[in-house]
Automatic annotation (TrEMBL):
It comes from the Eukaryota. This is HECT-type E3 ubiquitin transferase. SUPFAM superfamilies: Hect, E3 ligase catalytic domain. Keywords: Transferase, Ubl conjugation pathway. The keyword Zinc does not apply. Its EC number is 2.3.2.26. It comes from Pundamilia nyererei.
Length: 762
């Protein structure tokens, strides 16, 4: 301890002779002063490194080189080793949390006793603001952030308490919040001293195994609001790197501590990390940060720490934030296909890619990846067909390049099933639909109409494939048994083709259906492997059969005699084709009474039977139909909610957004006819707005990218005003005669959009 004290004292003496981190003017975000560059952190660290090397103290080892970014990298985007005795983790995903690891930790050092309370600190701040005497506040900040030990001394509820559980960090959260809320209102020299203290703490704590007090210090330091300023990003990056390099067991603790933060502060930390990644990718000034080649670990470290917050959000019930709040829209402007290929080639290895952390990629990026992946598969499929024809010296027909579907409106379902079954080898080609007897060339509009009509017919209650649940307003698979489940495969294929060809379908499945569709996300090689058997809970049943779920919930909470009052056995009854059939939930279930002791098992087996086992063959056919088209690694990037968005688009119509994105041909947006058009459309009820969208685009759903993705166009046609509007669904275009009055336009438009199905040439 004497030697250590002597060494630390040497560091203190050195600190007195170091150049200042900032110029005299305060940096942006730390006060009211103008923004200043951050050129002297490198100077500070370089000087510290040189002087320590000259003095032979060896306290920082190879850390200074790391801080200045000179550490040798095996690859430009690889997270470099931190130091020789810290194990590097190869697994970068935090999605699946491990069980709490009860490994022995080094004993914590004795923490000095600090007695300042939140109230006392706030009183000190008030006195300083009124008198201008900041000595006491300055001393507090200088001491508190000087080391990990001092951070624990200030903010740990009991200085030498253990607090070794995931449930309680042992941190006085109220005090931490008060100290950080006050920090940006202090003079610049105090703010600089905090940053200097953090630098020294990070340098001193770089090596060795982590204690719980170290984790507490990281937990507290990452909440510092100073990191919102780009001038502190170098320090912030090194803090993030140390947190990212912690063991999986340590990450497990941090995840559970993070989820205890208030929703507001949790969101602030997530937004700060997202901003850090965006600014590092696209800095405002080219020389604002060190060269990317010297700090390639910045983005991987920040993304991994962000994944801890995502994990904390996922294990919270309900989630603290929407999963969409973790999207970084800046990534829509990078070469995400290169990132996707890196991920395909290297997986979750040390070669960083954003696809390793799919929560950060927006649905727009994931849709684009799937589309480009689909296009490549389409081109490959078409090329193979072409080469095959040429090699056999056969005449090349350009129809070979397409999946050509020819159907009769009167026999739509049977014709579609026959065509898709017969042409299953062509499913990955570009889809082109022809309605027999109709003079329509498919440039996209007929395909949309085919999907719309087919979905409408398949999901009709009279057809019996799906049951409409009135309470939850969604469809679910009928449990009737049959010899052939090919029609369920057709529905799956149809959904796959919709995603593959970027068509939004008006389908109302519960979210659990999409979770089943991703279980597993890629088809198993073993043909006998089970598919779609997602873990089913009472909450999942609530989405589909809320009344039954409520009844089962009451069974679980019943205080009386379950066996005598409910008189249930491990057996269920279902009506199939007018007859009631019984099924045992477990062997001999009809003879096993449901009791207070086994009711949880009964409910679990009942829910699993309803959502998995009773419809297994139907859903397996549906699953294989979908994956016969969408067999892509990109599906592993998706959440169930995102699959639903890709299949169905969004039902939320924003006609004002469509108006802003609209293009004009022959008209301008100030013309009287155009102004009348938007007045009428914005005043339409939702049902007519949907009909207008269907009339103009062939679908009443909004694509993932929003209304702007429609490329909606209003064109002028020089015809008499007694004509109705005309649409070209292939091009998302509506053609308007030059109507003179609002009343005339509304009447003609309403007639047109209400009678917009088919070409009428049968």
């Amino acid at each position: 301890m004497d030697g250590e004290h002597s060494a630390l004292s040497g560091v203190e003496r050195e600190r007195e002779r170091l150049p200042p981190i900032y110029n005299s003017s305060p940096p942006a975000g730390l006060g009211r002063g103008a923004k200043q560059p951050f050129p002297s952190l490198g100077t500070f660290i370089s000087t510290l490194s040189q002087r320590r090397d000259m003095a032979g103290r060896g306290l920082a080892g190879g850390i200074m080189g790391n801080l200045t970014g000179n550490h040798g990298l095996r690859h430009g985007r690889e997270l470099p080793p931190i130091c020789s005795n810290v194990r590097q983790k190869h697994r970068l995903s935090i999605d699946t949390l491990p069980p709490e690891v009860k490994a022995p930790f080094p004993s914590d050092p004795i923490i000095p006793l600090r007695t300042k309370t939140t109230k006392e600190f706030q009183e000190d701040m008030e006195r300083a603001l009124q008198s201008g005497d900041w000595r006491e506040v300055r001393e507090f900040y200088l001491t508190t952030f000087d080391s990990f030990i001092e951070i624990n001394a200030a903010f740990k509820r009991e200085a030498n308490g253990l607090f070794n559980t995931i449930e309680d960090s042992g941190v006085n959260t109220k005090f931490v919040n008060a100290v950080y809320d006050a920090l940006l209102n202090t003079p610049q020299d105090i703010q600089k001293s905090v940053l200097k203290g953090i630098i020294n703490s990070l340098l001193r704590e770089w090596k060795g195994p982590r204690t719980k007090d170290d984790l507490r210090a990281y937990f507290i330091l990452v909440q510092n609001p100073q990191y919102s300023s780009t001038s502190t990003y170098v320090i912030y990056a090194h803090l993030l790197r140390q947190i990212a390099a912690l063991s999986e067991a340590d990450h497990h603790f941090l995840v559970h501590w993070f989820k205890k933060l208030s929703a507001r502060r949790f969101r602030q930390l997530v937004e700060r990390l997202l901003q850090f990644i965006s600014t590092r990718l696209f800095p405002a000034e080219p020389d604002e940060f060190p060269p990317l080649s010297k700090c390639a670990w910045w983005i991987p470290s920040a993304t991994k720490v962000l994944s801890l917050f995502n994990a904390a959000n996922s294990v919270s019930s309900p989630p603290i934030m929407s999963f969409t709040d973790f999207y970084n829209i800046t990534l829509e402007h990078i070469d995400f296909m290169e990132d996707y290929r890196t991920w395909q080639n290297y997986g979750n290895s040390n070669r960083f890619s954003f696809c390793q952390f799919p929560f950060i990629l927006s649905t727009v990026v994931k849709k684009a990846i799937i589309q480009k992946d689909s296009e490549q598969q389409m081109i490959s499929q078409a090329r193979q067909s072409l080469v095959s024809k040429v090699s056999r010296r056969q005449r090349v027909d350009m129809n070979l390049l397409f999946l050509n579907i020819k159907v009769r409106r009167a026999q739509l379902l049977s014709d579609s099933l026959d065509e898709l079954t017969r042409k299953r080898c062509d499913l990955k080609k570009k889809l082109r639909v022809t309605f027999v007897g109709e003079a329509g060339l498919d440039m996209g509009g007929l395909t949309k109409e085919w999907f719309l009509l087919l979905v409408r017919q398949i999901f009709h209650t009279d057809y019996g494939m799906f049951t409409y649940m009135k309470d939850s307003r969604c469809h679910w698979f009928s449990s009737w048994k049959c010899d052939n489940y090919s029609e369920f495969q057709l529905v799956g294929t149809l959904m796959g083709l919709a995603v593959y060809n970027s068509i939004a379908l008006d389908i109302h499945f519960p979210l659990y259906c999409y979770r089943k569709l991703l279980t597993p996300p890629t088809v198993p090689c073993d043909q006998n492997a089970l598919v779609g058997m997602a873990n089913a809970t009472l909450d999942d049943l609530q989405q589909i059969m809320p009344e039954l779920a409520h009844g089962l919930g009451e069974l679980l909470s019943y205080e009386g005699n379950v066996e005598e009052d409910f008189y249930l056995t491990f057996q269920v009854f279902q009506e199939e084709m007018g007859a009631v059939k019984s099924y045992n939930l477990k062997p001999g279930g009809d003879k096993i009474p449901v009791t207070k002791q086994n009711r949880k098992e009964y409910v679990q087996l009942y829910v699993d039977f309803l959502l998995n086992k009773s419809i297994y063959k139907q859903f397996a056919a549906f699953y294989h139909g979908f994956h016969s088209v969408c067999a892509s690694d990109a599906l592993m990037l998706l959440r169930p909610e995102e699959v639903e968005m890709l299949v169905c688009g969004s039902p939320e119509l924003d006609m004002s957004a469509l108006q802003k994105a609209a293009q004009y041909e022959g008209y301008s947006k100030t013309d009287a006819t155009v102004r009348c058009f938007w007045d009428v459309v914005l005043a339409f009820p939702l049902e007519l707005q949907k009909k207008l969208l269907h009339f103009a685009t062939g679908s009443d759903r909004v694509p993932v990218g929003g209304m702007a993705d429609f490329n909606f166009k209003i064109a002028k046609i020089d015809v008499p005003t007694d004509w109705l509007p005309i649409s070209h669904t292939c091009f998302n275009q509506i053609c308007l005669p030059p109507y003179r009055t609002r009343k005339e336009l509304k009447q003609k438009l309403t007639i047109a959009i209400s009678n917009a199905e088919g070409f009428g040439l049968e």
